[in-house]
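Can anyone check this?
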Amino acid sequence: MLRLRQNARSARLAGLSVVLALHGALLYSLWHSRVLPPPTETATLFVDLLTDTPKVELPKPDPPKPKAKPVKREQPVQPPPPQQLAAQAPVVSPSDPVAPPPPPLPPRIEVPAEPVPPAPPPKPVGPAVLSGELALTCPDRAPPSYPAISRRLGEEGKVVLRVELDETGQVDRATIKTSSGYARLDEAALATVKRWRCRPASRDGAAVRAVAIQPFNFVLEGR
């Protein structure tokens, strides 16, 4: 665009130079030919110089539009046609022997389940507990002797013993469950019960150990 403007200006200057040269040559020839009037009669000559031509702006070419890329359309994949599977029956000729069908199975008979007997209760573990005192279990028993010192001092009270018998009926162990408050009375009760002879306790026909509670009352006579 700048080069076009420079070329136009150069052309205008060249044209102006040519016009001026023509006018000068014309004046020179008229002057020598005496055709021009004297200076008094000479009219004022106005020369209009060519002004710059208006700038002509050429339209800018539009930028090339990008070419649209062709879109490849994917063809839908068609599923294969369903295939029917047909079982081919074997061809049987009339001369081939045909096996008879198997006989039907007999109906199944359900046998009722036998009731399960209840489990026996668990056998008790440990010595048998005798109800009541040892009066019925121990026929050979002697009463305790009252300590003489306890008589003089007037000691009285009730002793409760826990007595354990072995499988033969003998007293294996005796302990004080409730004391009388006097050691002499407690010791007299323990010494007496250890000499007793009892019948062994049984469980399911077998002799077992047993436990019983035996009380002793120490009371002074005449009080």
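Reply from J.R.: I decoded it. Residues 8 and 14 are 10 Å apart (CA to CA).
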